[in-house]
Amino acid sequence: MRQYSADLTPPWKKSQPVPEVPADPGLVVEEPGTGFCGAVIGCEAGTVTLEDRFGKHRVFPMEPRGFLLEGRVVTLVRPASGPVRPSRTASGSVAVPGARARVARAGRIYVEGRHDAELVEKVWGDDLRVEGVVVEYLGGVDDLPSIVADFAPGPDARLGVLVDHLVPGSKESRIAEAVTGEHALVVGHPYIDIWEAVKPASVGIDAWPRVPRGQDWKTGVCRALGWPADNTGAVWQAILARVGSYKDLEPELLGRVEELIDFVTA
C-alpha cells in the first residue's frame, strides 16, 4: 500500500513564495534586520554591498527573503549579466543607470573662468545633468555684485558662485560678503588659479611652483616647469586630460563644489 504524508501546517503559517529581484546597480532596498537602506553598488561572492544616502557602506549576505523592496519582502539574486561592480560618476557619486538629464533649473552655479567651468563639467557633469544645474563662467568677479542683482536670486532660483583665491582680507572676500544672502551663496578655494586645485602628482610634478607677485600666474608656472608659456590654453587641456575623477583634485575644491550643488538643489 502506498504511503501518504499529510501536511497539517495551517495555510497562514506556510512560507509564501517571494519574488526574486536582480541586484542591479542603483536598486534601493532595505535590510530589515538592521534597518539599513541603500542603493546596490556591488554584488559578489554571495554578498551585496549597499550605500546609504550619507555614503556609508554595508555588506550583507544575499539570503532568501533577506531584503525589503518598497516594503515588500524579496530575495536578491545576482543579475544575469554577472557580478555587479560599483558604478560611479567622476565625482564619486553612485551612477544612476539610464538617468536622463533633468530640465534645467532656474538656479545656476557661476564660476570665475572657462577653465573652472571645464573642470567642474569633467568631474561633476553627470551629477549636474541629473540635478538640472547649469554652470556658467563669469570671466572674473569684479562685476559680480551687478551680475547677482540682475539674476535676482530667490527661493526657486538659487545662485551659487565659486571664486578663486578666496582668502580673508582679499578683494574677492569683500565681494563675496557683499553679495552672499539667503538665496545666493559665494564660496571659494584658496588657490590663485583653478590649475592649482589639481593635485601635482596627477600632472606629474612635485608641486606647483611659486610665482612672484605682479607676474601672470599661468605664464610663470609654465616657465618654471618648462611648459610652453605662449600657449597656456593648450597646457590647460593637457592638465585637464590628466584629471580622471575627484581623486585628482584637492579637498579644498571638492568640498566647495559639493556645497554649491547642495545649496542650488535644496
UniProtKB/TrEMBL annotation:
Domain of life: Bacteria
Pfam families assigned to the protein according to its UniProt record, in alphabetical order: DUF3097_C, DUF3097_N
Stated name of the protein: DUF3097 domain-containing protein
Species annotation: Streptomyces parvulus
Domain called DUF3097: residue spans: 20-79, 108-265
InterPro entries for this protein: DUF3097_C (IPR021447), DUF3097_N (IPR053883)
Record-annotated membrane-spanning stretches: none
